[in-house]
Amino acid sequence: MNALEDAPLETSGWQRLSPVSVAYFIIKFAVSFVKATIQNILPAIAVFSVFAENKLLWFSIAIPTIIISITSYAFLYYCYFKFKVREGEILIHRGVFKKEHLNLEFGRIQNVNIIRPLYFAPFKVVNCLIESAGSKGAEIELPGVAEAFANDTRSKVFAAEKHIEIEETQTDAPEPASIPEKLSNWEVAKSGLTSYFAFVALAAMAPFSDRIGRYLFENLFSDLLDSLQSVVGFRVVAGMILLIGIVFLSLFLLISGSMLGALARYYNYELHDKGDRLVRLTGFFERKSTTLKKSKVQSVSISQNLAARMLGRVKLQYRQIGVSHAKRNDASVHIPILRPDQGPSFTSIVFPDCPEPTFDEISPSYIRRTFVFFWLIPISITISTLSIFISKLFLLGFIFLVPGILILMLRYHRYGFWHNDEYGAIRQGFIGKRVTIFPLHKLQIANIQQSRGQRIKNLGNLTIQLGSGVVSIPYLPMEKLSRFVNLALHKTESSLKPWM
Amino acid sequence: MEEEASTYSNPQRDTNQLPRWEDIELEPLAPSAPWPPFWQGCLSSSIFLVIGTVVSFSSGFPLAVYFSFLLIGIVLFTLSQWHNFAEHKRRGVALREKDLAFKKGLFWHQYTLLPFNRVQHIEVHQGPIERKLGLSSLRLFTAGGSGVDLQISGLESERADRIKQFILDKTKNEVLEE
Question: Which of A44, A110, A232, A301 is the most buried (most CB within 10 A)?
Fold first, then answer.
């Protein structure tokens, strides 16, 4: 079935994917289509579903057209897709309408992930996901290649890196036999509760709630409503009870869906420390192996949203360069759920000499100045104008200053800054919080900003661009800020450690 | 172990003695640097003015409202161009041995410090107005950014090319050192 089964790694000719990859492309393009539809034309569909006549006719034309288009596109994509691996680089030709010719040098590759979807299993092929440093579009997928080929490519890429990275002499040492860090599936299911999927789904359904409710009451639950009415006596009360029941049932189903989704994704989670790299094994329907070189980790992010805070858990991400936002969660090595006290030990896996940060607060001027300039003055001007020209009732709007000061207080207490000679850390947040820990030598750009008022008070805002993204902290004393910037620049400019 | 001890050194550095970014002396940009944004502003304002005038007169808009909007437009344009020329005097760029510093901002002073060994890609860009005035913009890209990470507009073209070459030489040397 698979043309690559016996294909050696070094070939001069172009290679093609297994024909089974057509199925993969169909699923992929269909999912992309649905996502794009939900994001971009959902309001148009809502308007159409309300006003259009002859909906059945339109759907009977649209649905087969979409299916045929996606299938044809997937088949053509498969036909035009070819690749070859040669000394030090991978070449890809792909695209139907827009042709792409990609040359990806091994040195630029960040990760080679091997994914084993269930539907590839009978054909003994895998999906090989190659991520490179750079901006969007930097990922290459080779769905439907032999597992041996994918493993061979991964070995070649890591072998090539060993030549490039002169400092990593220790990688020649045999891999230490590590005991994997495992997450229990109960903990994994709990991580589903920390995602806001249920609330996002409810919000997405909000525009249709009226139609859904009417349909449910008129068709599905009319008998149940009658029975309830006979028990409680009033139809309105029966309707209210039924409505509350439906809301709770929907929430239960959505929360269960979140937990099942987390289980499908992180089932039997294992994190292996292989010396110079981390290997994550996870997944129920497809067992996914993600490898990450420790030296490529740009920062470690430990975050806790409201739900995670209520559960007393945090999420930890080993963040690297060049993985687009959409793929970041899937492709980066991260741990979906941990106890807060486990954060430092998991951080030390990649940053071994990094102590637990002890954060300093920012200047209290942050509260005063932000309150005056971003809350008090704009609200006062707006309310005064409205109360003079329209109604005195608008004066009640001054009550918004109370949540304003509370929000600022929360943000102020979340902000924290710490650094020693090798590492820096920034804490920020509002209801939840996020701590970003990074080695100083991985700084890309330092940005210092000062308003006139901050100059008088000798304060400044600091923004640091890392390979993994931007972190910033306002209202730091300039002395502390300058000491950090000078040290981070010195470390970045003098360090010969690999950073990418 | 003894041999390792004899070759390995890790001297402590006094962090107060490190080169200070605060001491960087910035050099001004080209004197004609504010003119490209000025002409671009004139062009876009003219387009708005023509469209606004045509729409107002064809739809019978009250003349008082038309002139009110025109007055607001003139005030906004004057303020933005005042800001453009005043801010130009505050802009500055400096090259050190291992990094580049850039300052901008009139009310909010913003300093950007970019180490050469983090530059992934450099572009020298020249629009039609800049070409006429002999100016160029330098665009620097680092890893992980989503686009241009630092743009320095209003450099003399020759100076922009020299800076580009200087940085390229430095990054090349960095690779050799490794």
Answer: A110
